[in-house]
Specification:
The complex is a heterodimer. Chain A is an alpha+beta fold. In chain A, the strands form 6 sheets. In chain A, strands 8, 9, 12, 13, 14, 15, 16 and 17 form an 8-stranded mixed beta sheet that branches. Classes of the chains: A alpha+beta, B mainly alpha.
Chain lengths: 704, 207
C-alpha cells in the first residue's frame, strides 16, 4: 500500500510538473507577443522598468490638459533631467557648438563651411549652405537658421539651434535681437521675391528638445515633419505624439489632448507614452533603414528618411534577405542570411552608440592607469540627471559631424577576438591593420544607394539630376529590380590612426564653384542663370541660350542632353552665371564623395575569404566603381576636400580610380614594381635565350 | 685520381638535391604568391604562403648544414676562388663556353675530388651563396616576421621595399636555375654531369 501510495505521489508530482510546463509554455506564447518564428530568440524584448508617470507641462509649467498649450519638454522632462546639459549635445546643436575655424581647419573642413556638422556644413546632396553671421551682402545669403529648421528640422531633435540664435540668445527673450536685416537667425530668403525677409519667431515659436522622437516608440516623424516644414515649430513636439493617442489633430489643424490617455491625477498614462531607451525604430526615423526583423523595406521618398541607407545602401535588419517580400531583390533566393548579422543577433543601435556616461555601457579606458575596465563607474543618479547625449560613435568617412566625439564607441575588436576566429588567414595582424573589418564583412550591398547628384546642370524641376546605383527602376516603385552593388574601396584612419582600407559607396557631384567668393554657387543662383524667372505651375522655363545649346531637336532637355560634353557648353553656362547670377568667376568642378559602409555586416560564411579576390592583378581592392556617366572631363576633381586623381576617363564610362589613394598599401599578388618585373623577366629571358642559342650552336657544331 | 673516390660525396649530393628541390619549390610557391590568380598550383594563396615559409626555413637549415659540412670536412675551399679564377682561368673558361665547346675542345678544367668547380662556377656560387641566398633569406624572414616584429619589418621599408626586393632576387634565382640546368648539359655527354650528381662519379671528358 505504502509503495503504491508513493507511486501515486510521484505520478502526481510528475503530472503536476509537466502540466506546469505546458501551462507556462502557453503563457510564453500568449497572444500579444510576437510569434517566436518572427523574431530571433536573441532579440526578444528585455524586461524593463517603466518610466514613472509624468505630467505633460506647458511653457509655464502647467499641466497641458488644463492649459491646452504645446508641451514644453524643458518643463516636462527638465524637472528631473538636466535639460540644458542634454541639449548642449550634438543631436540638438548639430554643429552649432563646433563653429570654430581652428577646429574646422585642423580637420580639413573647407573654409566655406560654418561648422563640421549638419548645421553649417555644405554638402553636395542638398547643395545648400548655411549663411553665417558675417554676411553683409544679400547675394551671399543662402540658407538661414529658420529655413534650415523648416528643411532639416524634422530630424534635428529640437532645442539648441531651434531655441537659440547664432549669438547664443534664446529666441523670444529680450536679448534676442537681430544684428541687422541679414542676420541669418532672424530672416529667410524668399524664393518668390528673391529677397531676404524677416522671420517671425512669435508666429513660429521655438521647438524645444523633442525627447519623444527618440524615447517614444510610437513617435510620428511624419507629423513632426509637417509642423516643422510649415514653420509651426512650437507644436512640433506635440505632433510627434500623434500616434500615441495622447494628442489628436482637429479639422483646423490644431492639436488637442485626449483625456483617455491621462490618469485621474493628470499624469499621462505610462503605456501611452511608453518612455524607453531609443529603439531601433526611433533611430531609423532619421539614420537609415533599421529594423529588428522585417521582410518589407518600405519604398523611400527621396530626401525624406533613411539618409544613411540612401547614401551607401546599408540595411540594418535581422530578417534574412531571402525572406524579403518588398523590394524586389534580385537573386535573393540564394541569400539565406540576414541583411545584417548584428541585427539578427538582437543588437540595437544604442548597444554600440550608447550614452558615453551610461554606467552600464561606458568605456573605462584609462591607458595611463593600465586599466581595461574600471568598476567604479559613474553614479546612476548622476547619469539619469545628466545623460550625455553625445553618443558613442566611430569615425566613418566622410562624416565630420560631432567631430569631438569621433572614435568613442567600441570597435569591432572590443567585442570580437578576431585573432581567434580567423584561423585560415595568414598574417592576421597585417590584415587587421590594413583592412577595416567591414572590408571583408560587407562584400556587397544588396540595396540601392545614391550614385550621383549633379547640381551643375539643373533639370526643369529646378533641381539636380540624381542617379542611383543598385536599382533598375524608380526608388519608390516596388516593382523595380534591386540589384545592389559591389562597393569601392578607400582609405581612412582607423582608431589607432593607421590608414585602413574600407568599403564605400561613391556619390559623384558636379557643381559650379564661385572662385571669387571661395564657395559653391548657391542653388538660387543656378536657378537664376538657367531659367527665365520663377516657375509657373511648378515648371521652370529654361533660358533660350540653354535650350539652344543643350536641347534636342524638339527643344527638350532630358537627362542625356543636360551634359557638359564640350568646352563651349561649359563656357556658355559660365557666361550665364556671370551675366544673370553675378557670379564673378565660376568654375565647373567634380566632387567624388565617399560614403563608407559600416552596417549590412555578414558573417563568416558570406564574408570574403578567397584570397585571390584581393591578391590578384584584378584585385577587388581597385574595383573601378562606375561614377556619373555624364561627368565632364578636364575639370578639377576633389575627393574629401582635396584635389585628387580619382576618376579614370579612359574607358567607356568614367570610373573610380583609387590607385593613388591605396598607393601606400603593397598588396601581395596585386602590387607590382614595374622595373623589377621587367628587369627580372629580361634577365631570365636572356639566360634562356642564351641557353637555347648556345645549345643550338653546339648541336650544329657537333658539340652535343 | 683514385677512381673509387666519388667526385661528389654522398653528403654533397644530398645537400645539392635538397637545395635544388627547396629552390624549385620556393620558386613555384613564389609564383603562386606573386601571381595567385594565374598560378593556382597549391590550391590557395594562404597554402602557398605556408608552404613557401616552411620550405624557406628548410632551405635555411640545409644551408647551415651545408656550411657545417663544408667547414668540418674542409671542403669550403672548393667555393673559394683563387686570384687567377678572376683572370686567366676565367678567360679560359669563358673562351671554352663561347668557342671551344663548339669545336669539341677539351674542358679547360679536369675535375677531380680536389677541384670540382671551374672559375666561373666558383665566382657564380660565391655570389649566389654569399650574396643572393642571404639576401633572399633576410628579405624573406623579414616578410615572414611582419606580424611578429612589425617594427623591424617597417624599419626596412615594409612590403613596398621588401616585396619587390625579394621578387627581384627570385627572378635572379630563376635565371640562375635556367642557366645552371643548361650548363649541366655541357659535360662529356649532355647527361653526364647530371648523372654525376646522382652517382657521385663523372664520366671522363670526351676531349
Amino acid at each position: 500500500m505504502k509503495r503504491e501510495g508513493m507511486c501515486r505521489v510521484r505520478f502526481g508530482r510528475i503530472t503536476a510538473f509537466w502540466t506546469s510546463i505546458a501551462i507556462l509554455s502557453l503563457f510564453v506564447n500568449a497572444p500579444g507577443q510576437e510569434p517566436s518564428t518572427a523574431m530571433p530568440a536573441a532579440s526578444k524584448p528585455v524586461a524593463k522598468l517603466p518610466h514613472p508617470a509624468i505630467v505633460l507641462k506647458d511653457e509655464d509649467g502647467h499641466n497641458v490638459l488644463e492649459s491646452g498649450k504645446p508641451i514644453s519638454t524643458r518643463h516636462t522632462c527638465g524637472d528631473c533631467h538636466d535639460y540644458d546639459f542634454i541639449a548642449n549635445s550634438f543631436h540638438f546643436q548639430q554643429g552649432k557648438t563646433e563653429m570654430d575655424r581652428a577646429l574646422l581647419t585642423s580637420h580639413g573642413v573647407a573654409a566655406f563651411n560654418q561648422s563640421p556638422g549638419m548645421f553649417g556644413k555644405f554638402s553636395i546632396l542638398p547643395n545648400r549652405q548655411l549663411t553665417g553671421l558675417d554676411v553683409k551682402d544679400v547675394a551671399d545669403f543662402d540658407m538661414s537658421q529658420p529655413e534650415w529648421l523648416t528643411k532639416c528640422g524634422v530630424c534635428h531633435t529640437g532645442a539648441g539651434i531651434s531655441e537659440f540664435d547664432l549669438q547664443g540668445h534664446k529666441f523670444l527673450t529680450a536679448d534676442a535681437k537681430p544684428t541687422g536685416p541679414l542676420d541669418p537667425s532672424y530672416s529667410i530668403r524668399d524664393r518668390e521675391k528673391g529677397q531676404v525677409v524677416p522671420w517671425d519667431w512669435n508666429k513660429s515659436g521655438i521647438a524645444e528638445a523633442d525627447c519623444f522622437l527618440c524615447h517614444t516608440p510610437k513617435a510620428s516623424r511624419g507629423a513632426r515633419k509637417k509642423e516643422m516644414a510649415v514653420g509651426d515649430f512650437r507644436w512640433a513636439n506635440n505632433a510627434t505624439l500623434l500616434d500615441t493617442g495622447i494628442v489628436s489633430v482637429q479639422a483646423d489643424g490644431k492639436f488637442i489632448y485626449n483625456r483617455a490617455a491621462f490618469n485621474q491625477d493628470g499624469t499621462v498614462k505610462p503605456e501611452a507614452l511608453d518612455l524607453s531607451d531609443p529603439t531601433l525604430e526611433n533611430c531609423a526615423q532619421c539614420h537609415g533603414f533599421t529594423a529588428r526583423s522585417t521582410t518589407t523595406i518600405q519604398p523611400i521618398q527621396h530626401a525624406d528618411i533613411m539618409r544613411g541607407t540612401e547614401k551607401s545602401g546599408w540595411i540594418y535588419n535581422g530578417a534574412k534577405i531571402s525572406d524579403t517580400v518588398s523590394p524586389n531583390v534580385i537573386g535573393k533566393e540564394k541569400m539565406r542570411y540576414p541583411w545584417d548579422g548584428h541585427a539578427a543577433k538582437g543588437i540595437v543601435c544604442i548597444d554600440c552608440h550608447f550614452s558615453v556616461n551610461n554606467p552600464g555601457r561606458m568605456i573605462h579606458e584609462d591607458q595611463k592607469e593600465h586599466l581595461l575596465y574600471k568598476p567604479s563607474g559613474e553614479d546612476i543618479a548622476v547619469y539619469l540627471k545628466q545623460p550625455n547625449h553625445n553618443f558613442a560613435r566611430g569615425n566613418i568617412p566622410p562624416e565630420t559631424v560631432n567631430i569631438n566625439a569621433h572614435n568613442t564607441m567600441r570597435g569591432c575588436a572590443d567585442c570580437h577576438d578576431a585573432e581567434k576566429i580567423h584561423t585560415f588567414l595568414p598574417y592576421k595582424s597585417r590584415h587587421f591593420q590594413a583592412l577595416a573589418c567591414q572590408t571583408c564583412h560587407i562584400p556587397s550591398v544588396h540595396f540601392w544607394a545614391y550614385r550621383s547628384d549633379d547640381w551643375a546642370f539643373l533639370m526643369d524641376t529646378g533641381g539636380s539630376r540624381i542617379t542611383y546605383r543598385g536599382i533598375d527602376g524608380g526608388i519608390v516603385d516596388p516593382e523595380s529590380e534591386v540589384t545592389g552593388y559591389s562597393p569601392a574601396y578607400m582609405t581612412s584612419p582607423g582608431k589607432d590612426g593607421n590608414l585602413q582600407i574600407r568599403p564605400t559607396n561613391l556619390i559623384s557631384g558636379v557643381y559650379w564653384f564661385d572662385k571669387a567668393k571661395g564657395r559653391p554657387v548657391f542653388t538660387w543662383q543656378m536657378q537664376t542663370a538657367f531659367f527665365e524667372g520663377l516657375p509657373a505651375n511648378g515648371e521652370w522655363k529654361y533660358r533660350p541660350e540653354v535650350l539652344k545649346a543643350f536641347g534636342d531637336k524638339d527643344g527638350i532637355i532630358d537627362i542625356p542632353q543636360g551634359v557638359y560634353d564640350t568646352p563651349e557648353k561649359i563656357a556658355l553656362v559660365k557666361g550665364l552665371l556671370q551675366k544673370y547670377a553675378a557670379v564673378e568667376d565660376p568654375e565647373l568642378r567634380i566632387e567624388i564623395t565617399p560614403w563608407a559602409i559600416s552596417h549590412s555586416i555578414v558573417g563568416k560564411d558570406q564574408a570574403i575569404r578567397d584570397c585571390v579576390l584581393c591578391h590578384s592583378k584584378n584585385s577587388i581592392l581597385h574595383r573601378p566603381l562606375d561614377l556619373d556617366t555624364f561627368l565632364p572631363q578636364s575639370v578639377p576633381v576633389t575627393f574629401r576636400g582635396k584635389q585628387a586623381r580619382v576618376v579614370n576617363f579612359e574607358g567607356k564610362e568614367p570610373v573610380f580610380d583609387n590607385r593613388e589613394l591605396l598607393s601606400s598599401f603593397y598588396v601581395v599578388g596585386s602590387s607590382r614594381v614595374a622595373w623589377v618585373e621587367w628587369l627580372g623577366w629580361i634577365f631570365f629571358a636572356a639566360v634562356v635565350l642564351f641557353s637555347i642559342l648556345h645549345g643550338a650552336l653546339r648541336l650544329l657544331g657537333g658539340g652535343l | 685520381m683514385n677512381s673509387s673516390t666519388p667526385l661528389y660525396a654522398l653528403h654533397e649530393r644530398i645537400w645539392h638535391w635538397l637545395q635544388a628541390a627547396s629552390i624549385i619549390f620556393l620558386i613555384l610557391t613564389g609564383f603562386a604568391i606573386h601571381y595567385p590568380d594565374r598560378f593556382g598550383l597549391f590550391g590557395s594563396l594562404a597554402r602557398a604562403v605556408r608552404f613557401h615559409s616552411w620550405i624557406g626555413f628548410a632551405l635555411l637549415v640545409n644551408g647551415f648544414l651545408g656550411i657545417f659540412y663544408h667547414f668540418t670536412a674542409e671542403k669550403y675551399h672548393h667555393f673559394l676562388p683563387r686570384a687567377d679564377d678572376f683572370t686567366e682561368a676565367a678567360i679560359r673558361q669563358i673562351r671554352f663556353y663561347l668557342y671551344g665547346i663548339f669545336k669539341g675542345e677539351k674542358h679547360p678544367l679536369e675535375t677531380d675530388p680536389r677541384r670540382k668547380l671551374n672559375s666561373i662556377q666558383k665566382i657564380t656560387y660565391l655570389l649566389l651563396l654569399n650574396v643572393l641566398l642571404p639576401f633572399q633569406i633576410i628579405t624573406g624572414i623579414l616578410m615572414w616576421g611582419a606580424d611578429r616584429w612589425p617594427g623591424l619589418f617597417n624599419s626596412f621599408g615594409g612590403l613596398w621595399v621588401l616585396g619587390p626586393a625579394h621578387t627581384l632576387g627570385a627572378y635572379l634565382f630563376l635565371a640562375f636555375l635556367a642557366g645552371h640546368i643548361y650548363l649541366a648539359t655541357t659535360g662529356s655527354t649532355p647527361l653526364s654531369l647530371l648523372r654525376a650528381m646522382f652517382t657521385g662519379f663523372e664520366e671522363p671528358s670526351r676531349g
